[in-house]
Amino acid sequence: MDISVVIPLLNEEESLQELHDWIAKIMQSNHFSYEILFIDDGSTDKSWDVVTQLSKQNSCVKGIQFLQNYGKSQALHAGFKKVQADVVITMDADLQDSPEEIPELYRLITKEDYHLVSGWKKKRYDSKIRKNFPSKLFNWAARKTSGLSLHDFNCGLKSYKLKVVKNIDVYGEMHRYIPVLAKHQGFNRITETVVQHQARKYGETKFGMSRFTNGFLDLLTIWFLTKFGKRPMHLFGLLGSFMFLIGFLATGYIGALKLYKLYHGFKTILVTDNPWFYIALATMIIGTQLFLAGFIGELILRSKQRENRYQIKDVI
Ligand code: UDP
Ligand code: MG
Predict the structure, then answer these.
(1) Rounded to the nearest whole angstrom, what is the distance from the C-alpha of residue 246 to the centroid of ligand 1?
(2) Alpha-helical segments (H) within the chain
(3) Is any ligand 1 atom within 6 A of the Cβ of residue 97?
(4) In testing the pocket of ligand 1, which one of 10, 37, 64 has its CB within 8 Å of the most ligand atoms?
(5) Which CATH number fits domain 3-128+152-204: 3.40.50.300, 3.40.30.10, 3.30.230.10, 3.90.550.10?
(6) How does pLDDT run across 235-245, given as a tens digit for each residue?
(7) CB within 10 Å: which end of the chain, N or C, has fewer?
């Protein structure tokens, strides 16, 4: 099979038939063999009925229905697990992404041998203040932390080689950073292509303002995981040792000062009246805890299943 199209959806009943017909038309005119996998992420409208109908009309249509709404990342994860074709294309169900882009996305993966091609909605049809500006900031931060020069990390329209989707773990709300996850796994042939974008035809956006707070927190997580996820001791051990050292030096200083004063018969104060005492106490405790955090992190990594640690390019 040439192409698997993965479509996560939440309450998109009005769009599905139109989207299906459009994709089917493109596939037929390009002679692609394909499957369309709809993942119903807990819709409460008639979306699943429509998907069932479509699968009766067209044997290329498959569906997964979630028990409740788990989020777009989970929907993509479930889709990625099931797909079969050499090239996997994801798109939103709301007709904002255009199926006309499929042939080009396919070509870039097969002919130009990219691992991942991300759409770039160069001209966006979304609310300016609510989306365009924050998303610019967001993409800038993602570019800086990941080193990938993409303009539109969170574009729903993307294409992948099959092995890429089988080896990345999209969880939480990480669908915004799939290119970063892919790069993290060593799939570094990543590029972007300008895609058409339409205004939402039916229904409303499913993400509120929380997309920005969650988005930034996820960015921090991903940055942190990329940098220290495989070697927590390098961060926590260093910080911990540094803290502990401060405490250790402070203790030495307090002790030496007291002894020195006693020896020379100066007036002394109680060790616990010296502010350095509290600094020493706090830094030594915090230092030990940081060190332990790093150590436990290393132990957890050690006992974790050893799959997914590397990708093999060739074996002879
Ligand atoms: N979606 C989903 N689960 C969710 C939220 C959204 O499967 O919890 C789907 C939604 O139906 C659409 C795609 O993800 O197909 C993108 O969502 P939306 O269009 O609301 O996002 P926006 O275009 O506003 O970024
Ligand atoms: Mg949309």
Answers:
(1) 50
(2) 13-29, 47-57, 72-82, 102-110, 133-146, 162-167, 178-184, 210-228, 232-263, 275-303
(3) no
(4) 10
(5) 3.90.550.10
(6) 999 999 999 99
(7) C
